[in-house]
Structure formats: C-alpha cells, structure tokens
C-alpha cells in the first residue's frame, strides 16, 4: 500500500515541513514504501506558484536526512493574488503555464512506482489563490484521470474573522470542488487551531501546522490490527477510514483533533475532549455521524481494555445515534502517547453557512467579481452552481441533527 502526498501552496508546504518531523520520529512510518522510496526518498510532490516556500520545505527535509526528487519540486515565479480563478486557470507565461502538466507527470510517475497504489493525499488551504484555485484545477484533472483511486484532502479554512477580502469566494469555489472530486476531506479551521495551540510556547504558525501534521500522522501511519466480529481492521487504509466515518458521500467533511501526553488513556481522553468543538451557536450538541479514535503509544493495547469507558466519554460530547464502536491502535517508539479522534459531525454547518451567506452578499453587490472575470468569463455560473451545491451539503448535515 502506498500513497502519493501532494502539498500545494504556502499552507500545504508548511504542513509538509512539520509532517517530515512526524514521519522521522515514528519508526512505523518508515516501514515499507508507504511514504518513502528506499530509505530516504520521499514520494511527495511539492507545488507552489512561487519558489520560496517550496525551497524552504526541501531544506527542512534535507536536515532530517530525507530527499525530494527534483521532478517533484514544482513551482512558478509569480503568485496567484489570492484569486481562485487566477490559480485555477494560471498565467500564460512560459514559466507558469506548465505547472499543472508537471504535477500530473509527477503524479503519474510516482503512482506507477508504487507496488500497490492507494491514491493521493492533497494538502492545501481554502483561502489563497494557489491553495484554493490551483488545488481545484489539480483535483479536477486527477479525478478525471484516476477515476477509481482514492483522493483524500486535508485543507485549512481561514479564520472566520477575515484573513483576505476574497476568502469567502475562494472557499466557496474550492469547497464545491472538494465535494465533487474527493472521497473525503479532513478540514481544519485556523480560528479553532489557534484556540488549541494559543497557550503553547514558540511560533504559533509552526505549532498549528505541527498539530495538523500530528493528526495526519496518526491517521496515515500504519496501525496494528484490531478485530471486530471476526473481521480484521488495520487502519491507514482509505477504505477503512471511509467505512467508519464517511460511508455516505453526502457527508464527507471530517474533523481531526489530537492530544499527546504520558498520562493514562482515560485522562488523555479527558484532555482531548476539551479541544473538540461540541456545540453550535445555539449551545446545542452537534450530531455526530461517527467517530474514529486512534490510540498510539508504547502501551497502545491497554487502550483496548479501556475502550468502552473512553467511548462513553466521547459519545457524551455529541448528540449521536448509537453505532458500533471502532478504533485503531498503533505503536510509538518513545514513551509518549497520542489519542486522535477523526469525527464526522454537524459542526461543519457553521462554516458552510458563513461561507454561503457572505458569498451571496458579495455576489449580490458584485464585489470583487471583476477580479475573477478577468480569468473566467462565465464565473457567475460557477458561483451559482457552487452556492447551490454547498447549500445542499449544509442541508444534508442539518437533516442529521
């Protein structure tokens, strides 16, 4: 089993730098060819419209003794101006027009080198022109070519208080593409991440990206087998992830939270519970479609003995129909423990409503519309379709309450 991770834009490449640290600190991640070819060659594709962040990401990998092939380092020389349409359609200059083609060539090359190719993991933001627009173009192209393989997105939503005047329009268009092309999307929100890591020392951006990378590491890195009614589950398989938390394509937006410590599994579950978004704006519990705890540590099998009490604690945080409890466990090479929960719940509705409402307001006023029309003549039709599709996703989640 092998994945081909693709990191797009400034946000995606900053996540990559922290993800290298997670991989390098976990012996299980170096087993087989899931993320590596040989002992040190990363099967990752780094993409940006400018060279600075990509080069820094490559340097970070080198410092850990890891290498990225030159053909997997793809960048232009001009940013995308926080404009989805410019990111999607690109520039016509010689240094810019081949970015999409080069990414697809690298994706083909890496997928053909896999013994068992499972699909793509694509990491990006919803806000920037590259993270939202170029990623949307790549997703459309990849889905057309690889119509049977898994595509899992990890994306970061901007702070709802505003990072860019065009963030809602960019997010709307990108969310629509994610709904149409991916099997599931693990979504992080900058404002929620800041609440979690805000009290930690050091660079807040690095802390936020490390938190994301830690969640993804627990989800991606191989786990030990756990049996349910005679069927073995190994974890880190896309089919198993979807089977547990996203079996219905109408509900594919997931959340992830993690807590790390050397305390008991029960105490770690209590710490994790404090970081989960549990109530909506009306102080009502979110309805959870399902939860997937992932316990990793030197005594991870002890988690199985405490699983029922931990599930009772987690279930109490949500308005949730009683479903069969499933979990993954795995080892860590040091004495630390981590408990990560991948959840699919109605908390996504808050974000979808904000994006939809503010996008409608801006489009009615034709705010910034001319910036998009410079690169796509019929952009209003795309906006209309996106609003309709995101409203449908919102209604589907609301019906689950």
Automatic annotation (TrEMBL):
Any one cellular-component term (Gene Ontology): microtubule
Signal peptide positions (record): none
Domain of life (superkingdom): Eukaryota
GO biological process: microtubule-based process
Keyword Phosphoprotein: no
UniProt domain Tubulin/FtsZ GTPase: residue ranges: 31-230
InterPro entries (UniProt xref): Tub_FtsZ_C (IPR008280), Tubulin (IPR000217), Tubulin/FtsZ_GTPase_sf (IPR036525), Tubulin_FtsZ_GTPase (IPR003008)
A Gene Ontology molecular function term of the record: GTP binding
Listed transmembrane segments: none
Keyword match Zinc: no
Pfam family, one: Tubulin
Family the entry assigns: Belongs to the tubulin family.
Protein name, as recorded: DgyrCDS12223
């Amino acid at each position: 089993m092998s994945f081909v991770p693709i990191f797009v834009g400034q946000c995606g490449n900053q996540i990559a730098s922290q993800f290298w640290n997670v991989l390098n600190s976990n012996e299980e991640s170096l087993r087989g060819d899931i993320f590596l070819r040989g002992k040190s060659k990363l099967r990752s594709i780094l993409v940006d419209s400018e060279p600075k962040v990509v080069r820094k990401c490559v340097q970070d990998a080198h410092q850990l003794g890891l290498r990225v092939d030159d053909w997997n380092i793809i960048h232009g020389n001009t940013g995308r101006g926080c404009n989805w349409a410019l990111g999607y359609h690109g520039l016509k200059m010689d240094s810019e027009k081949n970015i999409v083609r080069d990414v697809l060539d690298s994706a083909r090359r890496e997928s053909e080198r896999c013994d068992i190719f499972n699909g793509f993991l694509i990491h990006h933001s919803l806000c920037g022109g590259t993270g939202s627009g170029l990623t949307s173009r790549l997703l459309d192209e990849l889905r057309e070519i690889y119509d049977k393989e898994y595509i899992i997105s990890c994306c970061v939503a901007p702070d709802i208080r505003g990072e860019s005047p065009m963030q809602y329009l960019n997010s709307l268009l990108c969310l629509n593409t994610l709904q149409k092309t991916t099997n599931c999307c693990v979504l992080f929100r900058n404002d929620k991440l800041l609440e979690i890591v805000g009290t930690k020392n050091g660079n807040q951006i690095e802390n936020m990206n490390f938190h994301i990378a830690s969640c993804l590491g627990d989800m991606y890195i191989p786990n030990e087998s756990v049996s349910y009614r005679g069927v073995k589950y190994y974890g880190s398989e896309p089919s198993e992830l979807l089977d547990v938390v996203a079996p219905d394509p109408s509900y594919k937006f997931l959340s992830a939270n993690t807590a790390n410590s050397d305390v008991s599994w029960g105490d770690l579950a209590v710490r994790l519970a404090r970081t989960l978004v549990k109530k909506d704006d009306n102080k009502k519990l979110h309805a959870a479609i399902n939860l997937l705890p992932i316990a990793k540590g030197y005594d991870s099998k002890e988690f199985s003995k405490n699983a029922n009490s931990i599930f009772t604690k987690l279930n109490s945080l949500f308005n949730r129909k009683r479903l069969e409890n499933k979990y993954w466990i795995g080892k860590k090479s040091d004495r630390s423990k981590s408990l990560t929960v991948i959840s699919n719940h109605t908390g996504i509705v808050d974000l979808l409503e904000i994006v939809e409402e503010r996008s409608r307001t801006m489009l009615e006023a034709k705010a910034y519309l001319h910036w998009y029309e410079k690169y796509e003549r019929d952009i209003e039709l795309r906006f209309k379709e996106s609003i309709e599709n995101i409203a449908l996703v919102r209604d589907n989640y609301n019906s689950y309450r």
